[in-house]
Every structure is written in C-alpha cells, then in structure tokens.
Amino acid sequence: FLRESLENPRGWRLVHDQEPEGELHKLLRDYFRLVEGMDEAIGQLLRDLQSRGLAENTVIIFTPDNGMMRGEHGFYGKWPPYEESIRVPLVVADPRLPAESRAKTSAAMVLNIQLGPHRAWERSAEK
C-alpha cells in the first residue's frame, strides 16, 4: 500500500532534490506564482467592491480547502497527515466589526461546515 501510494502522482510526493534549481524550488516557484495570482485577484475584488459602494456592506470569508507541505518532512503536496497540510487559515473581513475587534488571531479549531448552511440541513428541513 505505501509503495503504491508513494508512486501515485496524485498521492504523497517525496521531495528528493532540494538544490537551488531542483524539483522543490521549481514546485515552490509555481506555488508562489499561484499565491501572487490569488493576491492580485482578491485585491481586484476588493477594489471593485469599493468602487461600487459595496465594501462597507460585504463580509468576506477566505479559507483554503487544505494545507500544503512545501518540503517539510521531505514531502510536497497536501496528502501527508502533518500539521502543515491539515492546518489552514480562516480569514473573515467584516466591516461591521469595531476597529479594536479586527486583525485578531486565534488558535481555535474551526470546521468549514460551520461557515454556512449545510445542504443536508436544508434537505432535512424540507421533509
């Protein structure tokens, strides 16, 4: 099972080459390009909300669906069950909050099913 999982291109990815032009650096370069693209897209969304007069009446929730190993423990990807791949940020921007309540961090655990209505709940309410 382990050999099969390690050889699966969508499974656990061991990082063998950590040289400056090696596999890990190429993967990291692509990852950071993706992050930069997301940053630009989110910035554009915020500018659009502002220009339309909607920024002060819009709550934005941002969270990825998984963490990412970037060479830690010799792995790259989202599959290995280490802290780096199971912990993800949750950012909530709510303009209604008082200034002293903004920019807070918490170590509390949150499940993404707690963020909004769940389809199963909606179906059970229909019955």
Give me some keywords for this one:
127 residues; alpha+beta; 3-stranded antiparallel sheet; two-stranded antiparallel sheet; extended
Describe it for me?
The chain has 4 helices and 5 strands. The chain has 127 residues and is of the alpha+beta class. It has one domain (2-126). A 3-stranded antiparallel β-sheet has the order 1-4-3. Strands 2-5 form a two-stranded antiparallel ribbon. A hairpin with a 4-residue loop joins β3 (69-70) and β4. The protein starts with a helix and ends with a helix.
Q: Could you give a short account of the major beta sheet?
A: 3 strands, antiparallel
Oligomer: single chain
Low-confidence stretches: none
Number of domains: 1
Number of distinct beta strands: 5
Number of helices: 4
Cα end-to-end separation: 43 Å
The average pLDDT score comes to 78
The helix content, as a percent range, equals 25-40%
Percent of sequence in beta strands: 5-15%
Rg over C-alpha atoms, rounded to the nearest angstrom: 19 Å
Largest sheet, order of strands side by side?
Answer: 1-4-3
Order of helices and strands: HEHEEEHEH
Q: Structural class, from secondary structure content?
A: alpha+beta
User: Outline, from the CA principal axes?
Assistant: extended
